[in-house]
Amino acid sequence: MFIRHLVDFNDLSLAEWDILFDTARDIMDNPSKYMKSCEGRIMATLFFEPSTRTMFSFQSAMLRLGGQIIGFSEPKNSSVSKGEVLKDTIKVISGYADIITIRHPLEGAAFAAAQECKDTALINAGDGGHLHPTQTLTDLTTIRMEKGRTDDLTIGMCGDLINGRTVHSLIKAMSHFKNIKFYFISPANLKVPQRLLSMLARKGYEYTETESLEEAIPHLDILYMTRIQRERFTSEEEYNRSKGIYVLNREKLASAKPDMLVMHPLPRVDEISHDVDDDERAVYFKQARYGMYIRMALIYHMLNSPTENVPLPKLTDTDAYCDNPRCITNHEHYLKPMFARVKSHPDIRYCVYCEKQYKN
Ligand code: CP
To answer: Of 113, 131, 178, 312, which one's alpha carbon is 20 to 30 angstroms from that of 13?
Structure first.
């Protein structure tokens, strides 16, 4: 059995991650073996937010597997511009396609969409500042291909760590591996959300928060740079206070280990200077290509294996609502709020859509 929907990296077991990685490697070595494996199947790419890598790598992946693609990259070219709600769009498209990939600016949108897909597979291609599980698959593939392991690593994450969905998904994923140490490098207003720090503490992982890239860099096996995301700030002034705060250049790289990987989910703005691109430690363009192969592996298994839904957590009986303004439940008003409790901390309640936590 394989998962029917991928909303969160944690929907996958580690055994399934191993299967995906092995399949991606086999696809790299034997692409012709898979050329017709999704023949006659259709993927819909529903991108309510801009994308280069995720959308095109999914489309390229499906075409390389022999399937076909439909979709939009601008919601204004769909009936969303006439006020159609997400539920109706998904119900209709799930009758046209075998697999849907969705990117949406609101947190929890992919989870809400998955509830409407009974038989059609659905993949979260990024939901607001929340999660981006196939970027995490891309990142883990890069780490395993380039380092040969996903255990025993010190990883530094630098930039906008509060809004960075790639960072959030990667922290969750790395917390499944052994002997991982984290350095979180950000200004005070862009720190990793408390819920993720609490999760790491509960699981016994060591982490250091710092504002200094220079201080952290000599300790790292991997430096994961991220962009300060203009689109997630509520005002231009606030964005201007944080933009350009971190720039990795050759001078800073000089104090890094000779085999440290420089990764970035891309797009970059100015946080890695172009003179770093030729350094053999810079793997971000390779990383984007690995993303296509691991997405091929994911589509291949979701469309060619018997699948089952990831079970919902045990819901808490409450008439509360989520106060996160970026949670999908505050925009699509037919959605019934859902809350569950953190297993190890039953006093903490969280929104099942966006994972915002509440103490009670
Ligand atoms: N890494 C990533 O998600 O890039 P895109 O926004 O271009 O898809």
So the answer is: 113
Per-residue pLDDT averaged across 25-47, rounded? Answer: 98
The average confidence (pLDDT) of the chain is 95
DSSP string for residues in 64-100: HTT-EEEEES-GGGSGGGGT--HHHHHHHHTTT-SEE
Q: Compute the distance from residue 55 Cα to the ligand 1 centre, in Å.
A: 8
Residue nearest (by alpha carbon) to ligand 1 atom 5 = 51
C-alpha of residue 92 to centroid of ligand 1, in Å: 26
pLDDT value at position 242?
A: 74
Cβ(260) – ligand 1 distance below 6 Å: no
β 68-72/42-47 pair status: parallel
CA distance to 7, 125, 300, 301, per residue, from 118 (Å): 14, 19, 19, 17
Q: Structure tokens of 91?
A: 């119900």
- Token digits of residue 324: 């996160």
> Residue range 312-332: average pLDDT?
95
- pLDDT given for residue 235 in this prediction: 77
Predicted pLDDT at 43: 98
Q: Which domains does the chain have, with CATH numbers?
A: 2-132+289-308 (3.40.50.1370), 134-288 (3.40.50.1370), 314-360 (2.30.30)
| Any atom of ligand 1 within 6 Å of the Cβ of 54 | yes
Give yes or no for residue 239 having a pLDDT over 90.
no
Q: Global pTM? A: 0.95
> How much distance in Å is there from the Cα of 358 to the middle of ligand 1?
30
Mutate to test the pocket of ligand 1, among 45, 47, 52 (most ligand atoms within 8 A of CB): 52
